[in-house]
Amino acid sequence: MKFLQEIxxxxxxxxxxxxxxxxxxxxxxxxxxxxxRRDSIGNLLxxxxxxxxxxxxxxxxxxxxxxxxxxxxxxxxLLAAFNGGVHSDYVRGAKVRFFAGDIExxxxxxxxxxxxxxxxxxxxxxKVRVSQAxxxxxxxxxxxxxxxxxxxxxxxxxxxxxxxxxAALAMLDxxxxxxxxxxxxxxxxxxEEEGFIGCIGAVLKPSLxxxxxxxxxxxxxxxxxxxxxxxxxxxxxxxxxSIFNSSLTYFMSQQAAVLAKRDKTxxxxxxxxxxxxxxxxxYDAWGYLAAAVCVPLGNYHNMDRAKKKIGPEYIDIRDxxxxxxxxxxxxxxxxxFETGMKQLKERLTKRFSQFKQLL
Length: 359
Known about the structure:
Structural class: alpha+beta
Low-confidence stretches: none
Strand content: 25-35%
Largest sheet: 8 strands, mixed
Helix content: 25-40%
Strand order of the largest sheet: 1-2-12-3-13-16-14-15
Number of helices: 9
Distance between the termini: 56 Å
Shape: globular
Number of strands: 19
Mean pLDDT: 95
């Protein structure tokens, strides 16, 4: 849980992921078996070399809906750009916090400039009443506190998708001590909250990706009535836009089932999560073998819909821990993956042979 607490407390916003990138660089630097590469637009790829089969890539994004300071309009009023899918009605009047070096400056949003998108009205810029001048380029976030545990719930101002980043690094931390047979990589993308900008750049000019990669998209997805917190990590069969690769999803289901038999604390679910579109849809559209895993998220994009105001995002800590367990199981057995659902076809063929005489 150390990685979850630390990473979910790092200030970040679309196009302003530098602090997360700095954390990742340090993480890799103290683990000699890991290698880090960066593409021309700032996406990161951490790789742990193996000896067998195609590479497995676990992909998460480093940003969260937030702000970037543009300029002071007067001694107390800041103009800031806003990126991410948050309803203007929630943003207006929200308490925020800007991060300038080691200085934190609280403020209140007093005005939003809306733009239509994502099915509802979102701000493109905001005016913020601040306690002191804020330097241009400073990151602004909703003032909902750093990562902390409250009972079984883990809360923070940003879990989508810093919790995914944390899970991927927690996996690598374990695997680096005893590498699996397959090569394992973690792809960390930028500006997902503004419409997969980093991910699109990664597939348009694939300096980090290979067409043979097996990609697992990692997300925190809005909780659904049939996929609730505390019931386990979710094998995400699809999102609002697309359905993911069937062979990969089947392989993940096999790994989850074996893990559940061995570890009675491991729980998992399988569901289509239509709360939004995720990066696995982008990978799928460009012809990559892609599937997805997520945990159910409360207060998606900080929108507490019950109270109609901004609140902390939250997840069930057990779901996150189970996600890490699943990642490790997939990584350790990834070398055995074959496309085409070979085991399923063998089972179905055997059943046909058993009953064909009755036809």
